[in-house]
Amino acid sequence: MQAQYFCTTEGTELHYVNYDEIGQSTSDETMTVSKVEKVDGKLQAAYYDKIVTTKAKNNTSYTLFNWSYDGANTVCTEDLMYGPYVDSDSDPAKYNEAARLGLLEKLKFKGDNSFTIKDGAKGGESIPDRSYQVVRNMLKNEVNVSGAAYMGNETISTTAGKFDCVKISYLQRTKIVLKTTTLRVTEWYAKGVGLVKSEAYDTKGNLDSKTLLVKIVKK
Fold this sequence. Notes:
Order of helices and strands: EEEEEHHEEEEEEEE
Strand content: over 45%
Low-confidence stretches: none
Helix content: under 10%
Number of domains: 1
Number of strands: 13
């Protein structure tokens, strides 16, 4: 039985739609599963993510998520260097550790932006705080995730199907120069898939944004 919270079938496409606070679509997102392998006893996969923003010029951006599973914990880390690498007109196929480390220094990345989903976690169990900083568009971004906890299990239905999910909630504070934004984020993850649904609310309880898995295309 699959235990990891990510897909291990290379070529599979996970299609998402991102919505704003009034429920209008803001972007379409396609994650393509790649580089599935076992390294040092850990199952690993990469999700190459293409985001196309609705009604905008220069509307396509990219990022990369690296997943791993050691038999007890699923860990996901967004590679924040991949997008800037592609934006610099470099060949995505040539992206490697040397390129990542070069950008790591340039963008002054520090901290930990990974998250872990533990097998068999109980509702109410806390998740360690984490924080990181990175320079985006020449501005320093500081992100702090706190108060994270497992909220139990929940079945989520979307146009992509019906999924048994683990539910996670946390506070995310993002500081850019002098402006700080605080959101309460709730996410639902399914085994063998990854993210199924995400909702973010502001401090007044108003919806800020939502993401839904709408289609899975298996190769």
